[in-house]
Amino acid sequence: MNTARKTLLEMFDAEVFRVSGHALIDLLAQELQNSLDARRPVLQWREPTTEDNHWQQPLPQQPSVDLNGLLEKLKLDILPGNLAIHHPRNLGHQVATPLPVAALCDLVASLTNQAMAVYETGPTATMLERQVLRWLSALIGWQSAAVNGVLTSGGAQANLTALLAARQHAGENRIWRHGVTAERRLRIIASEHSHYSIARAAGIMGLGTEAVVTIATDVDGRMRPDAITEAHEACRQDGEIVMAVVANAACTPTGSVDPLRAIGEYCAAHHLWLHVDGAHGASALLSNRHSSMLDGIALADSVTWDGHKLLYMPATVSAVLFRSADKGRLAFAQDASYLFQDKPQEEQDFNVSYRTLECTKRMMALKLWAAFSLYGVEGMALLVDEAFDKARRFAAMIAAAVDFELLMQPQTNIVCFRHLAAGINASELNRHQAEVRKCLVESGGFHLTQVELHGTLWLRTTLMNPFTQEEDLQALLDAVRAQPASSAP
């Protein structure tokens, strides 16, 4: 056997995969335990420019490390440099502390590498996705055996897909072929707290980001229905078409949920497409205690739902779901004879590429299917209930402290607050919050974010980790207090 052939066989050797795979799982299991037990920092902060220089090296023309060396590099350099997602003091972004079994499912998806462009390139993967989409649709309240949606790589892509369908619907199915110039100007009505992917989608679709009409929110961060009515009427008077109203469930800055029923009833009465961006909060549908906050979501024409948030999946897996199959087919209307043969519609529906930006699409559904199968809706709801309850407890702690200010009572698992440090006047408070956050993050003690609302800067926590305890939250408040007021000039 020649050297090249031997090398190729070694690259795909099943026994080597078995041995190295066991070693890798052992390493990751230890990393998981270290994070859960807080035996490592949340983040080992390194200046980006210094870190970039550290990683620069020439492209290897020959092997530069063996499998043992790779595992050692993971153990000593790569894993320690990561943000510790499972750490109980990781309180920053809306990123799940993923279920370990879901991570194992991603390994299955990676090795089997089902492309899923059409049914024959991922048969079982297609069926798993269809089943998961049915389950999510049923949770929304859409009782149908049809599959009206698709899993995508992230909520931004899911929002774009939904809005592409809304655009086609507004143009009476002409826009995909003839473009937007043939129509009156299209508008999207959305909350001032809508995710940036909404404006980005408007730009991508050729509408321009100014096509998004932003609606003011009330003191609880919820879009005002009366303001939607005013905006809609203004668009009509200007001869513009409102192609969609986008409601939040929940918004990213504060976790607030818009009044979905009132908005849905208005949209239905005026034949407006309602898209609910439930990337973060749609998982409240799992909970008997919290699902009522999403009352009216079934009135939506489309819904985005992220698995890698409160369904506790590894990133990324998002669902874009449609109330009817006809609406779900509107987003894309493209011919590709090498993929799509001349078959009846019911057969073509098994070809996922009809409904997504992606042609090559990985098997995303396995981890969701496995989690629901292993833990059921009741088990998954425990995660949501824990997160929401923890946010309420933290808010109560903040409200009881005279040197902190709570932005609002949390509706989901996001809590915004600020420190009212003695000796700092109102004009310096924003700088103080930013400096406090910077010091805490770079110390490795905590990870939290910040958000600016109407000129005021707030510290922001997203309570995702079931292992975060009240003592961790108290420690955060104490750490904020310990930051010197002089850090704000």
Please write out the topology.
Layout: H1 3-11, H2 14-36, H3 48-55, H4 67-81, H5 100-112, H6 123-140, E1 149-152, H7 155-170, H8 175-178, E2 186-191, H9 196-204, E3 212-215, H10 225-237, E4 241-248, H11 260-269, E5 274-277, E6 302-306, E7 318-322, H12 325-328, H13 345-348, H14 365-399, E8 404-406, E9 414-419, H15 429-443, E10 449-453, E11 456-462, H16 470-482
Parallel strand pairs: 2-3, 2-4, 4-5, 5-6
Antiparallel strand pairs: 1-7, 6-7, 8-9, 9-11, 10-11
Helix pairs in contact: 2-4, 5-14, 6-14, 7-9, 14-16
Strand order of the largest sheet: 1-7-6-5-4-2-3
N to C succession of SSEs: HHHHHHEHHEHEHEHEEEHHHEEHEEH
According to DSSP, the number of beta strands is 11
- Sketch the major β-sheet: 7 strands, mixed
Distance between the termini: 72 Å
Uncertain runs with pLDDT below 50, 5 residues or more? Answer: 335-341
Please tell me what the overall shape is.
globular
CATH topology of the domain at 107-373: Aspartate Aminotransferase, domain 2
Q: How many helices in DSSP terms?
A: 16
What gyration radius follows from the Cα positions, in whole Å?
24 Å
What's the mean pLDDT score? 93
Percentage of residues assigned to helices: 40-55%
- Into which percentage range does the β-strand content fall? 5-15%
User: What oligomeric state do these chains adopt?
Assistant: single chain
CATH class designation of the domain at 107-373: Alpha Beta
What is the second-level CATH architecture of the domain at 107-373? Answer: 3-Layer(aba) Sandwich
**Helix/strand class:** alpha/beta
CATH superfamily of the domain at 107-373: Type I PLP-dependent aspartate aminotransferase-like (Major domain)
